[in-house]
Amino acid sequence: MADSERLSAPGCWIACTNFLRSRKGILLFAEIILCLVIMICFSTGPSSEAYYSSLPVFEMIMAAVFFVIYMCDLHTKIPFINWPWSDFFRALIAAILFLIISIVVLASPGKASKVIAGVLGLVSTCLFGYDAYITFPFRQQRHTAAPTDPADGPV
């Protein structure tokens, strides 16, 4: 049993580093880090404004879940969930909510950490929007041209 655990660990590490080098892996990792920074910026403010940090916490958890799902190839092993659409709606809703929260935060006066969180929220809007754009399921389908007969009929 120890041999199988020892042999599976490098495979897991290789899968993790290979996924982390892909475009989707880099996006998900950047989303996790950006949400963590925004959450810290919102948390340093007064306790009456700490409710803004619930969106970055939720999106950080969701990005981490999708990171693990894609890294371990669970999206191919769990076929009853439509993963491209789930990931698209996760990123699209996050982009919209971060845009709304950022506008609200930047429109109200506050400390510097709140302004930084608002600006980083706008950056995360762009990041989540780009993630939604590249994961849009119809964009990923490749179409091949159908063979056509000559207009004059068979030759």
Automatic annotation (TrEMBL):
- Location in or out of the cell: Membrane
Could you tell me what this protein is called? Proteolipid protein 2
Any Pfam family: MARVEL
Spell out the GO cellular component terms annotated for this protein, sorted alphabetically and separated by semicolons. membrane
Write down the species.
Trichechus manatus latirostris (Florida manatee)
Main subcellular localisation: membrane
Membrane-crossing residue ranges in chain numbering: 26-45, 57-76, 88-109, 115-133
Function noted in UniProt: May play a role in cell differentiation in the intestinal epithelium.
